[in-house]
Design goal:
By secondary structure, the protein is α/β, with parallel strands linked by helices. Helices cover 39% and strands 19% of the residues.
Length: 285
């Protein structure tokens, strides 16, 4: 199996994309922060369905981390990531340095409202401005036809869709359903922080959300369902629950029923690890 080509500068990235474009090929981008798992590789495989060439970016973006968060300890394994990307059929790895993305004198920031408000935006207020900044830069640098994101970070996906429309960026943003382990736990790079005991208890997040989503979709009381999720998480040993909320699936505005497609979202702490998950809620016809 041949090694995956790696570029680290905007100039080299554009040169490769330009060569593909000259050959009439379409391009897909899969933005990541590395520490890749099967969920990321599913994004790459979906990108291959949508375009002739696939670029995966690996960049741990300091602009979306607060000083007290896990930027320094976020897992990094470029060689392992490259091997996984090769096996998934990726064509190019873009792995810029912080200096390449934010050169000396960099003075631009982005602010997001709409889908960025509440949920993770209330607990990590720096996050979505940083996400919007780095993803818009990646879109401008790579100029893809399509970009693929996972639905596990559902609020992030809706933020990306919103600013892409707002800024008239000619990229189709594709969302891929959350990839889960056999017991239902959503795949996440941060799962590596969990001890075996914590991992065994953390699966209650997905189970509680799944049950509550089904109850709400069947016409059950949403407030009672959300209280049930909180109670189950507390019983499982989650030390703190940031939120458990029902939101409109597109705008992420708060809702109280599944009269139109909705999303049940939660974030909670198992030990020192903050876990997020979400489930679609669609009322039966």
């Amino acid at each position: 199996m041949s090694s995956l080509p790696v570029v680290r500068t905007v100039a080299d990235l554009r040169a490769q994309v330009g060569a593909w474009r000259a050959g009439g090929l379409s391009v897909a981008l899969v933005p990541t922060m590395g520490a890749l798992h099967e969920g990321h590789l599913g994004l790459v495989r979906r990108a291959r369905d949508l375009a002739d060439r696939v670029i995966a970016s690996v960049f741990v973006n300091p602009a979306q981390f607060a000083p007290h968060e896990d930027f320094d300890r976020y897992p990094r394994d470029e060689a392992g990531d490259a091997a996984k990307l090769t096996s998934a059929g990726c064509h190019l790895l873009y792995a810029p340095s912080v200096r390449e993305m934010y050169p000396e004198g960099f003075a631009t920031s982005m602010a997001m409202t709409g889908p960025a408000e509440g949920l993770c935006g209330a607990f990590r207020p720096q996050m979505f401005g940083g996400v919007a900044l780095v993803v818009s830069k990646l879109f401008i640098q790579a100029q893809p036809d399509v970009a693929v994101f996972g639905e596990k970070d559902y609020q992030q996906l809706q933020v990306v869709r919103r600013f892409t429309r707002d800024l008239d960026i000619p990229v189709h943003v594709e969302g891929l359903p959350t990839v889960r382990e056999a017991d239902g736990m959503a795949l996440s790079s941060r799962n590596a922080y969990l001890t075996p005991d914590e991992r065994g208890r953390a699966v209650e997040l997905s189970r509680a959300l799944s049950d509550a989503a089904a109850a709400i979709a069947a016409g059950g009381d949403s407030a009672a369902a959300l209280d049930g999720v909180r109670a189950r998480l507390a019983a499982a040993g989650f030390a703190s629950i940031d939120y458990v909320e029902l939101r409109d699936a597109e705008s992420l505005a708060p809702v109280t029923s599944a009269a139109r497609p909705a999303r049940l979202l939660a974030a909670a702490w198992m030990g020192r690890t903050r876990l997020i998950d979400n489930m679609p809620v669609v009322a039966a016809a």
